[in-house]
Amino acid sequence: MGVINTPMIPWCQTSLPLDIQCNIHIKLENMQRTGSFKIRGVANQFARRPRGGHYVTMSAGNYGKSFAYALKLYGEKGKVVMPETAPVSRSTLIQSLGVEVERVPTSRLMDVVNRCVREDNMTFLHSYDDLDLIAGHASLGLEVLEVMPEPDVVVVCCGGGGLLAGVAAAIKLSGCEKTRIYGVEPEGEIKSAVSALYKSGLVVEPSGCAAFAAIVGKKIPDLEGKNVVCILSGGNIVKDELANFPD
């Protein structure tokens, strides 16, 4: 499916200085195919299933985009059930790939998925709670170790937890017992983090820069002198959304 081994570069190669006394490398999943890490898990989900399926998932954006890309690539049929709160631009993009989108209240997402499984004989692919998906995300952890074989700290953006689980499994099962791994959910510092990354030449969506925000916001303890990996998990943000962030 063309999953990209994305660049992992030292922060010093960007144009923005940071007041942090550690060796930070950033893993640029915002440069991944479909714009986020999600394609890693989706690729493995589809690789583990027979062709000719009829699939359904629920997603507010990035997983749905990767899911739709895979359906188009393999000529499969499917549907993305999206919460009504998701930007219309995301459902339009998924529909442009030839995939049906049904927008429903968030409280009804699982009900609609279950209806599709029951009435239309569709197969549900979960966007984070799926072992094949987690195994696919583990490829990111292995790529980190190719560049930095023994990182002291790895900081991962965390939503549903699939990426965190995959990266942690890959790193720990590779023998890096002393590596500290942190999962970070977005909160208050996100806007300034998006702006800082943009000023350094990197377009990263708010949820995708949670790990970076935690590092620069000094939420991760004991980083001084350490080799630190920060995963920027996605870059699916449009110019209208960028306009909402401070200069």
From TrEMBL:
Annotated Tryptophan synthase beta chain-like PALP domain residues: 2-188
GO BP: any one term: isoleucine biosynthetic process
Cofactor(s) recorded in Swiss-Prot or TrEMBL: pyridoxal 5'-phosphate
Keywords assigned: Lyase, Pyridoxal phosphate
Domain of life: Eukaryota
MF (Gene Ontology): L-serine ammonia-lyase activity; threonine deaminase activity
Descriptive protein name: L-serine deaminase
Organism of derivation: Tetraodon nigroviridis
